Amino acid sequence: MKPNTTLSVSILSGKGGVGKTNFALNLGYCMFKGNHPLLLMDCDLGLANLDVLLGIAPDKNLMDILDAGAEAGDVAVQLEKGGFDFIPAATGLPELVELDEEMRATLLNKLSSAFSAYDFLFMDLGAGITPTVMNFAAMSQMRVVIVTPEPTSLTDGYALIKVLNTEYGITDFQVVVNMVESKSEEKQTFSRLSAACEKFLGFGVSFLGSVRQDKTVAEAVRRQTPLMKMAPQSPAAQDIFAIARKLKAMRDDMLPELQDKPVLAPLLREDLD
Ligand SMILES: Nc1ncnc2c1ncn2[C@@H]1O[C@H](COP(=O)(O)OP(=O)(O)OP(=O)(O)O)[C@@H](O)[C@H]1O
Ligand SMILES: [Mg+2]
Q1: Going from the N-terminus, what domains does the chain have, and what CATH number goes with each?
Q2: Does the CB atom of residue 16 touch ligand 1 within 6 A?
C-alpha cells in the first residue's frame, strides 16, 4: 500500500456560530495557494453552509455517497484548478441526519482512496456534541476546536473536549481562538480553557493560533467569496495565513507517523479496548 501523506483535520466547536465554516474555507484556500492540494468536506449533514459561502449550488452531495451509491469523483466540485476540491453536504434535509455505522463504513471504503491525491483533508462540522460530530472527530488525525472569548463558547468548547476524552480517550486538541479583540484577550481565553482541561481532565490543550475580530469576514460572506481571495491583507486573513504556515510545518513533522495511518481511522474506541 502507498504510504499515506494526507493529514485529516476536523474543525469543531461546542457552541455554534463561532466561525468554523469560514475558518475551514479560508485555511483551505491558504493551503491550496501554498501548493498543498486540499479536499474540503462539508460534514454538517443536513445543514450545509460551505456551498452558501462559496455561492455555488452543487447538484450532488455527501449524502449521495453515503446513501445512494455515488462515487467521490461524481460528487467532488473543483473550487480552484490544481488542488482545491470540495465535497458538499445536503442543505435543509427534513429529517435529522446522523452518521451511523453503515455510513461510516461506506465513507471509509469509498472516500479513502480519493484522499490520496491531497495533502490535507479539512472537515467542517456542525456545532455541539452530536453523534456525527463525535464520529468525524474521532476518525480524524487532528482536531481543531474553535472558541471565541465569549464565556458560553468556552464552557461549550470545554464540554466538547470532555466528551471526546471520556468517550474516545482523545487527549490531543488544537485550539483556535476566533474573533479576538486583542492579544491579552487571546491569552486569557486560551489559558482559561487549557487550565480547565488540566485541572479536570488531566491534560492541557495546544494553542494553534488566534484570528482577530474583523468586519471584512462578514463582507466576504456577503460576497460569497473566500476572505483570502477578496482581502488577503485584512487582519483576519493575515492571522489565518499564520495558522496555515504553522499547520503545514506540523504536517511536515507528522509525515513519518502518518505513513502507516489511514486518512480516516476506524473509531479510536476500538484501539482503547
Ligand atoms: N474573525 C472573525 N471576525 C468577525 N466575524 C467573524 C469572524 N469569523 C467568523 N465571523 C462571522 O461569524 C459568523 C459565523 O461564522 P461561521 O458560519 O463560519 O460559524 P460556524 O461556527 O461555522 O457556525 P455553525 O455552528 O452554525 O456551523 C459569520 O457571520 C461570520 O461572518
Ligand atoms: Mg458552520
Answers
A1: 7-255 (3.40.50.300)
A2: yes
**Ligand 1 proximity of 151 Cβ (cutoff 6 Å):** no
User: Which of 12, 13, 20, 22 gets mutated to test ligand 1 (max ligand atoms within 8 A of its CB)?
Assistant: 22
pLDDT in tens, 241-269: 999 999 999 999 999 999 989 899 876 45
Whether 56 contacts 77, CB under 8 Å: yes
* Ligand 1 atom index nearest CA of 212: 1
The owner of cell 435543509 is: 92
Q: What is the mean pLDDT of the chain?
A: 92
Each residue of 192-248: pLDDT tens digit? Answer: 999 999 999 999 999 999 999 999 999 999 999 999 999 999 999 999 999 999 999
Contacting residues for 211 by C-beta, under 8 A, at least 6 apart: 19, 23, 176, 177, 178, 179, 180, 236, 239, 240, 243
Distance 21 CA to ligand 1 centre (A): 7
214 Cβ inside 6 Å of ligand 1: yes
Q: What is the mean pLDDT of residues 99-107?
A: 84
Q: How many angstroms does the Cα of residue 7 sit away from the middle of ligand 1?
A: 24
Nearest CA to ligand 1 atom 23: 17
The conformation of residue 143, written as its DSSP 8-state character, comes to E
